Amino acid sequence: MARDRITDTKALDQIADGITKLDEQRLTELNNLKQLQEIKHEVINREAKRLAAKYGSDHPRVQKLEARSNYNQSMFPALDREVDKATSKTEPLPLNAWRLHGKVIGEKQRPMPEITVFFADANKNWIREFGDSCSDQTGYYSLTIKEEFIERAQKEKLYLAASNRNKEVVYHQLNTDTPTKGIIDYRDICLAKGGCSSPPEPDQPTRGK
Fold it and tell me: What is the C-alpha separation between 63 and 67, in angstroms, rounded?
């Protein structure tokens, strides 16, 4: 019995569908984990209060529970970021392109909208061919380098940069992800000030963080 031939397009569609299902499963598991951690956190806090009322706040059991509660509390922002990653919906990656996406985050892990994210050279000049992205209300940005520019991107020393509405460069860090055909990488940008514009032109003064 002859087997049906699977075209490249059909194969890519099947792979994309499989990845989507895995992403949905990951999001479900992350939300379940978050809910479980929140319940455990509440139980620990209640037990710590009960023991503190009975033995005093300096009792070793109370201090141990409070330390565990503080540790759990510190883990919630990281878990929230993982949920955000799984929630982010991206456009299909063009064939043989490379994408870097993530969130722009400000103080207290708050999302930073209207921040222009782009690739720059060592002098903080925007590399126009690699495009730019303005972060949305959740702080999400997405940069895609097309196939025809991948080889150049691999040879150049790229810097991931961000600017505010005044075209001041508020973030400029060496890109540690290697542009690779067909790959999507994730990277968050942490800064404190906002404002969106087009990237600064090479002849404009820039100010680093």
Answer: 6
